[in-house]
Automatic annotation (TrEMBL):
Belongs to the 3-hydroxyacyl-CoA dehydrogenase family. InterPro entries: 3-OHacyl-CoA_DH (IPR022694), 3-OHacyl-CoA_DH_CS (IPR006180), 3-OHacyl-CoA_DH_NAD-bd (IPR006176), 3HC_DH_C (IPR006108), 6-PGluconate_DH-like_C_sf (IPR008927), 6PGD_dom2 (IPR013328), NAD(P)-bd_dom_sf (IPR036291). The record marks H138 as: Important for catalytic activity. NAD(+) binds at G12, S13, G14, T15, M16, G17, D35, E90, K95, S117, N141, K274. One of its GO terms (biological process) is fatty acid metabolic process. SUPFAM superfamilies: 6-phosphogluconate dehydrogenase C-terminal domain-like (SSF48179), NAD(P)-binding Rossmann-fold domains (SSF51735). Pathway: Lipid metabolism; butanoate metabolism. GO terms for molecular function: NAD+ binding; oxidoreductase activity, acting on the CH-OH group of donors, NAD or NADP as acceptor. This is 3-hydroxybutyryl-CoA dehydrogenase/5-formyl-3-hydroxy-2-methylpyridine 4-carboxylate dehydrogenase. Residues 184-282 form the 3-hydroxyacyl-CoA dehydrogenase C-terminal domain. The keyword Oxidoreductase applies. Keywords: NAD, Oxidoreductase. Residues 9-181 form the 3-hydroxyacyl-CoA dehydrogenase NAD binding domain. The lineage of its organism: Bacteria, Bacillati, Actinomycetota, Actinomycetes, Micrococcales.
Length: 311
């Protein structure tokens, strides 16, 4: 646990920030969770107890002394910090403004890790006073349950920082995946390739949302959670992959924009759980019930996956 910073700051307390903060705190760090929004901080404080229960349920690494404090005072959040994890909305200009606010308050030695879903680190670092301190640290949602983090150095990232972040991630028992920089990084390139095809199949009426979810959960998700795509090819046979990909790849969706039916839903204010409707509709209490089912399922699956060999 010695690689873990004593004090860390998480900037942005929306979907990702609280789980990130809680994971580091349980491993022993003093964590300050900062947001510009009092409401977001209040929601994070309310959710913290639940997240702590989830971390205990999956036996997440725990060390004494860790804590999370919550606040909207940036100077207080940055006092003595060694590692800043930025988790504000996915907008380059906003992130660059946040970095400028941070750099006006911190010493050159402080690391800034960005949880961007895929904006190139090199582009983000262009505006920094100390570009070498910026590195991609992409957590997957929910961050306190998915024990894998992509680490993405940009062209300017200090070489020593890469190993340092790998050690930090290992210190709280997550799997670090070191990658070369590419838009979307690896996880979201794969996820968005799947989602593009899924949305095309729905738009063309080939399958219902319920049918799609069942097919992908059992036919793809279940299998890939155990064996990974590279090993899957060995199990299926490379000759089979060649036979199928030779006619199928040319038929797969190649659209370059968001599907129109998704844009229409967004225009109607249908954003998913956060608006009680999106791909599915949710009545009173349904979203809370679904959230609980998802967390319960992820806890059970993580326990099982942790107890079987990596094949
Ligand atoms: N949601 C996901 O599934 C997911 C998964 C992995 C990575 N990410 C990435 O993590 C980042 C955060 O995503 P999210 O889903 O948590 O976003 P979110 O919109 O849920 O939360 C962002 C928070 O940042 C706060 N914020 C806005 N401007 C700020 C500022 N100047 N200073 C401090 N706080 C500010 C907002 O008040 C909000 O609470 C994004 O880059 C996103 O792409 C998201
Ligand atoms: C739809 C979607 N987009 C981005 C991300 C992460 O960057 C996730 C995720 O982590 O689950 C996601 O589901």
């Amino acid at each position: 646990m010695s690689s873990l910073p004593s004090i860390a700051t998480v900037i942005g307390s929306g979907t990702m920030g609280p789980g990130i903060a809680a994971t580091l705190a349980r491993a022993g760090a003093t964590v300050r969770l900062y947001d510009i929004s009092e409401d977001a901080i209040a929601r994070a404080e309310a959710a913290y107890g639940v997240v702590q229960g989830v971390l205990a349920a999956v036996d997440s690494p725990s060390a004494p002394g860790g804590s999370v404090s919550f606040g909207t005072d940036l100077d207080a959040a940055l006092e003595g910090t060694e590692l800043i994890i930025e988790a504000v909305p996915e907008k380059l200009e906003l992130k660059q403004k946040v970095f400028a606010d941070l750099e006006a308050r911190i010493g050159d030695e402080v690391i800034i890790a960005t949880n961007t879903s895929g904006i190139p680190i090199t582009t983000m670092a262009e505006s920094l006073r100390v570009p070498g301190r910026l590195i991609g640290m992409h957590w997957s949602n929910p961050p306190h349950l998915i024990p894998m983090i992509e680490i993405i150095p940009g062209q300017a990232t200090d070489e020593a920082l890469v190993g340092q972040l790998v050690d930090i991630v290992k210190a709280f028992n997550y799997v670090p995946v070191l990658e070369k920089e590419i838009p979307g990084f690896v996880e979201n390139r794969v996820l968005y390739a799947i989602l593009r095809e899924c949305m095309a199949l729905l738009e063309e009426g080939i399958v219902t949302p319920e049918g799609l979810d069942a097919c992908v959960k059992w036919g793809i998700g279940y299998k890939l959670s155990v064996i990974g795509p590279t090993r899957l090819l060995d199990m299926a046979g490379l000759d089979i992959y060649q036979a199928v990909s030779s006619y199928l790849n040319k038929d797969l969706d190649v659209s370059t924009d968001t599907p129109q039916f998704i844009k229409d839903k967004i225009a109607e204010g249908k954003l998913g759980f956060k608006s009680n409707g999106g791909m599915y509709e949710y009545g009173e209490g349904d979203v809370d019930a679904k959230r609980k089912e998802i967390v319960t399922g992820l806890i059970a699956a993580r326990k099982t996956l942790s107890s079987i060999p990596n094949v």
